[in-house]
Amino acid sequence: MTSPFPRAWTGFRRPAYQAGPPPRRQFLPREFLEALLAGAAARLPLLDAPRLDWADAERVHDPAYLARWRRGEVTRAEERALGFPWNPAVVERGLLSSGATLAATRDALAHGLGINLGGGTHHAYRDRAEGFSFLNDVVISTRWLLDQGHVRRVLILDLDVHQGNGTAAILQGEERVLTVSVHGANNYPFQKERSGLDLALPDGTGDEAYLAVLDEVIAPAVARFRPDFAFYLAGADVLGGDQLGRLALTPGGVRARDDRVFRWAARTGTPLVTVMAGGYNRDPRKLIETRLGTLDAALAAFG
């Protein structure tokens, strides 16, 4: 795995601006989004990805739920749970982001590594939307891998600051998948689901304690499971200063986290898909630095 790997272009593309976003403070200003894309493009080409087929979404989500959202037949309560009002671009953005994760999954099968510059909508349940998540992109790609017989055991390593409650609920009882979540104990969602392995961290957890959890708890559990494919939700909302997070990692701590994951995958020959997941920092420049650091960690590990 020493050749360059294709990356999937994803949810920061134009339709994301049209999707009726939640309060402005939770999203990067447009100029910083453009700077992030420019930084990524300076490292590797940005590749388009096809929108997800509805048939692939139905592998995971209730068809009646999907049909209602396609038609816009949603309630105010459902819009509040999602985090912004319904419009057709909400559906389109979900399909584009999930399609990019599936394209990155094919990249990883072919080349060892795939990266979606967005994705990680881990709060979507089988039959309801929550937390800015309409479709659960990683579970959709996991189900595709298993149904197609490409792999036998899948690891979903969720290092976003928020527990992947939708992922945990959908995959409850699926012995071929190990769901791991390292998240803030006091963060959304306030009623957690049960993952295969949950590590809930106290407010203010910094680099040293966080990395110790990865080394002393997560790494041995992953080694015992022996996955032959992995998804990595590389949330930047673990950074100190995040508007929706309560942890206190530095950019260097996040880079050390990323290095551990990518080097493990490269060393063990485990195909890996990375999605960016959450990040709402008060300092957009720090967020961009951290996002690009994740790409650099991937390139350093895989060549």
From TrEMBL:
Pfam family, one: Hist_deacetyl
Protein name: Histone deacetylase superfamily protein
Family: Belongs to the histone deacetylase family.
CDD domains in UniProt: HDAC_classIV (cd09993)
A GO molecular-function descriptor: hydrolase activity
InterPro entries the UniProt entry points to: HDAC_classIV, HDACs, His_deacetylse_dom, His_deacetylse_dom_sf, Ureohydrolase_dom_sf
Domain Histone deacetylase: 42-283
Gene3D superfamilies with a match to the protein in the record: Histone deacetylase domain
Residue numbers spanned by region Disordered: 1-23
Keywords from the named record: Hydrolase
GO biological process annotation, one example: epigenetic regulation of gene expression
